[in-house]
Amino acid sequence: MSDQADFLAACRDLLGDAYVLTEDADTAPFLTDWRDRFTGKALAVLRPATVEQVAAILRACAQWQVPVVPQGGNTGLVLGSIPDAAGTAVVLSLARLNSIRALDPVNRTITVDAGCILQTIQEAASAAGCLFPLSLAAEGSCTIGGNLATNAGGTAVLRYGNTRELCLGLEVVTPQGEIWSGLRGLRKDNTGYDLRDLYIGAEGTLGIITGAVMKLYPQPKACITALAAMPSPAHALRLLSLMQDHCGASLTGFELMSQYCLQLVAEQFPQLPRPFAEAHGQYVLLELSSSQSEAHAVELLEASIGAALEDELIEDAVVASSVAQSEGLWQLREHIPLAQAQAGKNIKHDISLPISCIADFIAVTDAALESAFPGCQLVCFGHLGDGNLHYNVAPPPGMTDRDFLANQDAINRIVHDQVHGFGGSISAEHGIGALKKDDLARYKSPLELQLMRAVKQALDPQNIMNPGKIL
Ligand code: FAD
Ligand code: ZN
């Protein structure tokens, strides 16, 4: 038998034939990314059901030097969970590790398998009267392992932080096939280097996350949503300061959307609500949570909106008066990426900036793009409260996707040079994967890259963990 056949036979012994997929029809769903930009090849897709099986598979991969691409829900946006075209790697799907292991309402923690779907964790927390605050549009299919591996952000970062801030402990299988059990539910633990923080955001390049202890929070008594309209991003930033001053920690969402974003959603999803009769320059979706009562939340929101109208920061606002109306407003925000995907190709940027620089960044970068690519459409929205913009560029009317995508490098260069110049980051929440590797090399200092390579070399000297990603 060839080496590959020996390796696959060993995998079949460990997992059973049904969980070692090699037929094209079976492997296809695991090999193309969510945005349908790239299809890789794999020796096999492996579907272990236990941590011990993951460890045994990793020992086999180390023995036969087979590269491993971990995969959760495959909703990542930077080609991190897809193998390259060589066909020598295996995709290791964590989807069958999907149990809630424990929930401790007093410690306010939940211990979960890495393959648990995010929404399942939210629902388990809610059933116990708690809140698991991580929330993003892919929550019905992304996994907590993928959220941790990409340090996902989402819409509640302003109040609760990124996935990193929500994680207290991890269980990890090393590239050598050992199991590190760091499932500690401690809020304080200063006992040397923080290995947990190394694996979070490592995009599967250092080891496989198989379990995690995540923080839970009290469920707010009330949550209300409003949509405010204003002429410019500068007005939106002044509104952010005002809301933070008035509402403190009760402000749990602050999402910016440009007029063009809402126009795109209205064109692609005409069934969704249209809150304003007239068009405005920008919109902010606001969410306030109260630990006291609905009346308290409404009072806070109305007082803040009143002050914003008086200061002429906003031109108009609608406050959702029911859960259904509130969901309708959130749907406008969440349908922007879906509307873009339906409308055609676009070039995405997931960037962060010091909040104080955002209005200047948008003005300068919009102008630079318009001058280089007249008529290009800017789909700018995002988590303004976190300084994170999804600053996406769509082709001028009439230009084919193909002609437009030929300019991808030039467009990325214009946007990322501006981001770098303003002291920002070229990846705020989606990670680096295979897609932004060259950009990372361009904007990180040589010393930072050298330190990152030293960590990779120390933990994965054979370079079998998701090779070709990040570095
Ligand atoms: P995958 O896509 O399967 O994998 C992502 C990366 O993690 C890959 O590098 C993979 O190798 C690695 N990985 C996966 N599981 C493990 C594991 N158990 N151990 C080690 N490595 C692993 N992201 C945000 O941050 N904020 C958003 O608001 C947001 N909105 C989105 C909206 C939509 C509609 C979509 C499609 C995506 C969105 N994303 C967002 C991106 C994506 O959903 C997140 O990055 C998510 O965390 C990925 O989880 P996943 O389980 O799908 O991981
Ligand atoms: Zn986002």
Tell me what the structure shows.
With about 475 residues, this protein is of the alpha+beta class. The chain folds into 4 domains: about 90 residues, Uridine Diphospho-n-acetylenolpyruvylglucosamine Reductase, domain 2 (2-Layer Sandwich), CATH 3.30.43; about 120 residues, Uridine Diphospho-n-acetylenolpyruvylglucosamine Reductase, domain 3; about 120 residues, Alpha-Beta Plaits, CATH 3.30.70.2190; about 100 residues, 2-Layer Sandwich (Alpha-Beta Plaits), CATH 3.30.70.2740. The protein has 17 helices and 18 strands. The protein has a 7-stranded antiparallel sheet with strand order 15-12-14-13-17-18-16, sandwiched between helices. It has a 5-stranded antiparallel sheet with strand order 5-6-10-8-9. Helix 10 crosses helix 12 and helix 13 packs antiparallel against helix 15. It is globular, with a radius of gyration of 23 Å. The two termini are about 35 Å apart. The model has no long low-confidence stretch (mean pLDDT about 95). The site of flavin-adenine dinucleotide has 37 residues, from strand 3, helix 5 and strand 10. The site of zinc ion (ZN) has 4 residues, from loops.
